[in-house]
Each structure stands twice: as structure tokens, then as C-alpha cells.
Write a structure and sequence with these properties.
about 425 residues, alpha/beta, UDP-n-acetylglucosamine1-carboxyvinyl-transferase, Chain, four-stranded mixed sheet, about 25% strand, globular, binds uridine-diphosphate-N-acetylglucosamine, binds phosphoenolpyruvate
């Protein structure tokens, strides 16, 4: 088990390069198997979830050549097995995309029920509703979702709830269905648009991604493409909030500022300066921060994947703030851990009421999930003294070289794996 050890109190200063979006890449590498021609994908983040999914894709026979850490060449013509199941794939959420991709292409798929961060009950019904509406039979058997169809037929589908996963999954299956599908109440997240653009670059006919209504005209075949994944909105937002928490001055580079507007707006509200460039955003935190209200919402609202990070910043901002989590019912598990660092949070149902304190004090804490883990690291960077974050396995699901990027901005942070190394770090920095 590895940990991050952090000596807090250093303002983060400098420039940091943001990688490709994990949640776009997971959809895109799944969709890549829908053609029998070779697909090249660039700006792939080199993180655990991507590697688990690429291994699963390779296990079913597709050719997966990693040209370098951020580029992969894939060929789906060698697929000989439509059953996707192993102990790693069961732990990630995005395995569900192989259902849409394989069902669309082969009209059959058997994929382990999805896992992912433990942030709520995370039902899967809308995906299944969509596949069934397209004409597939779908059953859960022995831990696998088994989807089968003689032919998929385009139809009209209304999603009862805005769901990123269901939108992309149904879009993939419908891309190779017969006729026209209209998907209403679709998710509008940047990764939905990126997945649609990728499919279109392979010859799909998808219009309206990024709006509430997506129209898909099925095609018989998809073809080769070369595609570069959009920058990661959530990685960028995490560094922006780390700058705010540490009274820093950070320019996050290789981003699409439009995707960061909800985060920038909150930073401005609490007293940071935010400067936008063509493909960069600079956050300067030089004044005392103050309270605000945040509610997580589907895009273009404030992202749920940034909720723990902004809550940590509000925890050391003057006054009383509230953070309302409207997407996942169990995304405040980090609050108990943050209390060890002195935080004054009270959670009532889906609302955290946050009494701002002057600063956190370093403590030993556990990362309960990916974004909460990143948020605890931010707390450690701001805190007085030393923080140890256990279970960083979760953080590595979605952040590439997190500690190295933070250290390049002046953070005192190391990845360690033994108690001896923790003691060594403590001696070195005290
Ligand atoms: C791999 C990936 O991209 N994960 C992201 C994806 O997760 P994921 O695709 O699981 O999230 P969804 O957008 O589907 O979930 C949104 C809401 O819809 C509900 N719901 C979803 C599907 C369904 O069939 N039935 C249903 O009721 C969920 O419980 C949740 O309340 O979008 C979330 C919301 O932006 C992000 O936090 C995750 O990081
Ligand atoms: C919750 C997340 O991922 P997943 O849906 O894969 O669990 C996330 O990226 O913050």
C-alpha cells in the first residue's frame, strides 16, 4: 500500500500541464473497437483506469499497441471473445462502455457489472433501458450483463435522469443501429461531446452532442481515424483549487477554459483572481477567501467530481458555506477524514454545512475514493504540519503523476510505501 506524505504550508506557484480527460478517454478507447480498421488515439492519460480498460480490451483479442505513455494504436478486427470479465474490470465504472460498443458492433456483449468509486448506489437502469429500446434483450447472469440483439433498430429514447454514462453508451450502440435514434434529456458534459466527435471521425452520424437532444443515424461500418482526447476538466479544476487553498499562483496549461467556467466562477466568488487565456487559466489566491454556496449539477453546472475539492477550500474560507451534492447520495465520506485535520463540517442529508476555520492541521487520513482522495491531498498541502494520505490507489485511478506535478509547483510531497519512509520524510522536513 502506498501513501502520500505531505508537509503543508507552501503556496503552489508555477505552471502545470493538464493531461487528456480520463472520462472521455474511457469512452473513446471502448468505442475504438467498433471498427475493424486501425485507430490511433493521442493525449491518453496514463492512469490506472485507462490501463485496466486497455488490458480488458486486449484480453478479448483486440490489438492494443501503446506507442508511448500517451498514445495508443488499436485494432478491433482481432476480437474473438465477447465476454469481458476480470477482477480489475469489475472495479471500474467505465467497463459499461464495452457493452454499448460491442453490442453496437457485434449485437452481443457480456460484461461484468460496473464498479467505480463508492459514492452512491449508482444504478445502471438507464443504460439497460436504452439498449432494450434499441431492440436488445438484456439480462444479468452470474455477475455479467448479457445483451443480445438480432438487429438494433433506431428509436426515440427519453432519459429520465441526465446520465453521462447512459448517454454515451446508448450513443455508441445507436451509432451502428438500423435507422435513426433520438436521445432526449442527454448529458452535455465535454466528454459526451468528445466521444461523439470521435465516433463521427470514424464515420458515425451523430448530431447535437452537447445539447439536450442527440440525433444519431446508424451506419453499417465505422472506419479508421486518428484522434486526440480533450484536456481533463477535473484534473485542471483540482490544480485550480489546490492553488486557491495554498494561497498560490498557478497557471494550468493545455485546458479548454470554457469547460472550467463553473469552477472559475466559484473561485472568483470566494475571492481568487482567475485569468483566462486561449488554452490556459491562471488562479491567484492572495486575499483571505470567503464563504459561498455550491450545488453540484450536470454540465454546465458545477461538477460533482469537483465537490470534495471545493469543499476542502471552503473549509478554510471565512464564514459559513454550504455544498449541496445533487448527483450522488454518498459523496461526503471524506468529511470524517477531514475532521481529523480540524475541519468543521456538518452533513445533513445531501448538504454539507461548512464553518470555515483558519487552517487545517496535518493528520493521517484515508482516501475514501478518487476525488475525495485528491481533496485530502489539497487539505494536506494547505495544512500546518505533516499529513499522510493512505489508500492513494484511488487517486491513481484518475491523476497521472499527481505528486510530481504538485512537487513541480513547490509542494513538499512524496509517494512512499513503508512506515520507515514516512519517518524518514518527517525527519527530513522538520
Ligand atoms: C467513468 C465516468 O465517466 N464516470 C463519471 C460519470 O459517472 P456515471 O456515468 O456513473 O454517472 P451518471 O452521469 O450516469 O450519473 C448521474 C446520475 O444518474 C443516476 N443514474 C445513472 C445511470 C442510470 O442508469 N441510472 C441512474 O439513476 C446516478 O445514480 C446519478 O445520480 O458521470 C458522473 C457524473 O458526472 C461522474 O461523477 C463520473 O466521474
Ligand atoms: C467518480 C469518478 O469515476 P468513476 O465514475 O469511474 O467511479 C470520477 O472520475 O470522479
Amino acid at each position: 500500500m502506498e501513501q502520500y506524505v505531505i508537509k503543508g504550508g507552501n503556496p503552489l506557484v508555477g505552471e502545470v500541464e493538464i493531461g487528456g480527460a480520463k472520462n472521455a478517454a474511457l469512452a473513446i478507447i471502448s468505442a475504438a473497437v467498433m471498427t475493424d480498421e486501425t485507430v490511433t488515439i493521442e493525449n491518453l492519460p496514463n492512469v490506472r483506469d485507462i490501463n485496466v480498460l486497455l488490458n480488458a480490451i486486449s484480453d478479448i483479442g483486440a490489438k492494443v499497441d501503446r506507442l508511448d505513455a500517451h498514445t495508443v494504436k488499436m485494432n478491433g478486427s482481432f476480437i474473438h471473445n465477447l465476454v469481458v470479465d476480470n477482477e480489475y474490470i469489475r472495479k471500474i465504472r467505465a467497463s459499461y462502455y464495452l457493452l454499448g460498443a460491442l453490442l453496437g458492433k457485434y449485437k452481443h456483449a457480456e460484461v461484468a457489472l460496473p464498479g467505480g468509486c463508492d459514492i452512491g448506489s449508482r444504478p445502471f437502469d438507464l443504460h439497460l433501458k436504452g439498449f432494450r429500446a434499441l431492440g436488445a434483450t438484456v439480462d444479468i447472469r452470474h455477475g455479467l450483463v448479457v445483451a443480445d440483439a438480432k438487429q438494433l433498430k433506431g428509436t426515440h429514447i427519453y432519459l429520465d435522469k441526465v446520465s453521462v454514462g447512459a448517454t454515451i453508451n446508448i450513443m455508441m450502440a445507436a451509432a451502428m443501429a438500423e435507422g435513426k435514434t433520438t436521445l432526449e434529456n442527454a448529458a452535455k458534459e465535454p466528454h459526451v461531446v468528445d466521444a461523439a466527435n470521435f465516433l463521427n471521425s470514424m464515420g458515425a452520424n451523430i448530431r447535437g452532442a452537447g445539447t439536450d437532444v442527440i440525433r444519431i443515424v446508424g451506419v453499417e461500418k465505422l472506419h479508421k481515424t486518428e484522434y486526440s482526447i480533450i484536456p481533463d476538466q477535473i484534473e485542471a479544476g483540482t490544480f485550480m483549487l489546490a492553488a486557491a487553498a495554498t494561497k498560490g499562483d498557478v497557471t494550468v496549461k493545455n485546458v479548454i477554459p470554457k469547460h472550467l467556467e463553473a469552477i472559475s466562477a466559484k473561485l472568483l466568488e470566494i475571492g481568487c483572481e482567475v485569468e483566462e487565456f486561449d488554452d490556459a487559466v491562471r488562479v491567484v489566491s492572495s486575499k483571505p477567501l470567503h464563504h459561498t454556496q455550491v450545488t453540484t449539477l450536470p454540465y454546465p453546472g458545477f461538477p460533482t467530481d469537483m465537490q470534495p475539492q471545493i469543499a476542502v477550500v471552503l473549509g478554510i474560507s471565512e464564514g459559513t458555506s454550504t455544498v449541496t451534492e445533487s448527483i450522488f447520495e454518498n459523496r461526503f465520506k471524506y468529511v470524517g477524514e477531514l475532521a481529523r485535520m480540524g475541519a468543521n463540517f456538518k452533513v445533513e442529508s445531501n448538504i454539507a454545512i461548512i464553518g470555515g476555520i483558519e487552517n487545517y492541521t496535518g493528520a493521517r487520513v484515508n482516501a475514501p475514493d478518487l476525488r475525495a482522495g485528491a481533496a485530502l491531498v489539497i487539505a494536506g498541502l494547505a495544512a500546518e504540519g505533516i499529513t499522510v494520505v493512505d489508500d492513494i490507489y484511488y487517486i491513481e485511478r484518475g491523476y497521472e503523476e499527481f505528486e510530481k506535478k504538485l512537487a513541480s509547483l513547490g509542494a513538499v510531497i512524496e509517494k512512499v510505501s513503508t512506515e520507515k519512509e514516512i519517518q524518514k520524510f518527517t525527519l527530513k522536513v522538520s
